[in-house]
Design a protein that fits this description.
By secondary structure, the protein is α/β, with parallel strands linked by helices. The chain is about 30% helix and about 15% strand. It has 10 helices and 10 strands. The protein has helices at about 65-80, 85-100, 105-115, 115-125, 140-150, 170-180, 195-205, 220-225, 240, 275-285; strands at about 155-160, 190-195, 205-210, 225, 235, 245-250, 265, 290-300, 310-315, 320. The chain has a 7-stranded mixed beta sheet, covered by helices on one side. Strands 3-5-4 form a 3-stranded antiparallel beta sheet. A hairpin with a 2-residue loop joins β9 (about 310-315) and β10 (about 320). α3 crosses α4 (about 115-125) and α5 (about 140-150) crosses α6. The longest helix is centred in the first third of the chain and has 15 residues, at about 65-80.
Length: about 325
């Protein structure tokens, strides 16, 4: 997202070929995708966990059947396809929840998930990790700036960031809009959503350590952020920037989204890589009527929507439009 971003930066998500934990559900898994269903809601990454204890040293018994139930629950509730090789990672993430809830077995914890919506949300948060940065995939922000300059009507511009994570992407969008309009109060509304409530809370605070801002140009840092006095060198986004964004939890698999179109831009980047093709298609089909005729959908560098050619067409590097769009 930064004007100086390099998508191969080590802090970015691994390339498609190196991405851990994702794959097809194994034969016989009776999970059906939520076709009435986005970051993803939130955008998300399942990661390997270092230093896992061998299975014989585990505090709680963890059977293959337990793992398959967890895979099914994660797919059903978040659309994330979890590789069979991630059994140790899942154990290490969820064993903390068993201790916290006082459950003696994984079966007991899984029964809890069937009845406790709050714990089910924590379960999803535990198995998803958000990696992001300011101005990641910088070319998209340049394209967005050009798009904004072409809007001739005097009307509010609306952008949906579907996987806002800890806020770097929506704040990068807000900075781009402010720069384009040379104003701290541009005519824009940004909806920033994610499935993970914990990262949304961080995003809404808008406070970042200095090392998280290394992709922010010095002029942007002084214009859009203020240092927190007496702290650890962290910065807070300016109130004017914060006011441009509405943060809310949205699960892209939910049958109803609490958003209304039309949007000039939908940023759904590095989200679809966690969904199977059928779920991807279902989400994209729901995006289309929310998009202006000349609007754009911005995808991640590893994502392709070729399988949705009856819904969208490409107009550049991971940028898509409706089939009836006048853009070429």
């Amino acid at each position: 997202m930064a004007l100086s971003t390099n998508s191969s930066d080590s802090r970015d998500r691994p390339s498609l070929g190196a991405r851990p934990g994702l794959g097809s559900l194994p034969p016989g898994t009776s999970v059906k995708p939520g076709l009435s269903t986005v970051g993803n809601d939130s955008l998300k990454r399942i990661l390997n966990h270092p230093g896992l204890a061998p299975s014989q040293e585990r505090e709680f018994a963890f059977t293959d059947a337990d793992f398959e139930r967890i895979r099914s629950l994660l797919y059903k509730n978040a659309g994330i396809v979890l590789s069979p090789s991630k059994q140790d990672m899942v154990y290490s993430r969820l064993v903390r929840r068993l201790r916290s809830c006082g459950d003696q077995t994984f079966s007991q914890y899984l029964r809890r998930l069937e009845q406790d919506n709050s714990e089910r949300e924590t379960f999803i948060n535990s198995l998803t990790t958000n990696l992001t940065s300011f101005f990641r995939e910088a070319h998209h922000f340049e394209i967005l700036a050009d798009q904004l300059k072409q809007v001739k009507e005097k009307r509010p511009i609306r952008i949906w960031c579907c996987a806002s994570s800890t806020g770097e992407e929506p704040y990068s969008l807000a900075i781009t809009v402010c720069d384009t309009f040379s104003s701290m109060t541009p005519p824009v509304e940004i909806v920033a959503s994610d499935i993970d409530t914990s990262v949304l809370a961080q995003a809404e605070k808008g406070i970042y350590r200095r090392d998280r801002l290394d992709r922010v140009q010095p002029t942007h840092l002084s214009r859009y952020f203020t240092p927190i006095p007496g702290g650890d060198g962290s910065y807070a986004v300016r109130a004017e920037l914060h006011r441009l964004i509405r943060f809310r939890r949205i699960n892209l698999l939910s049958p109803a989204w609490p958003v209304q179109g039309p949007f000039d831009a939908i940023f759904c980047r590095n989200v679809m890589i966690y969904f199977d093709k059928q779920t991807q298609y279902s989400v994209l089909k729901r995006f289309v009527p929310l998009l202006r005729q000349d609007g754009r959908i911005y995808a991640g560098h590893s994502e392709s929507f070729i399988h949705a050619a009856d819904l969208l067409r490409s107009v550049g590097r991971t940028v898509y439009v409706r089939l009836d769009s006048p853009l070429r």
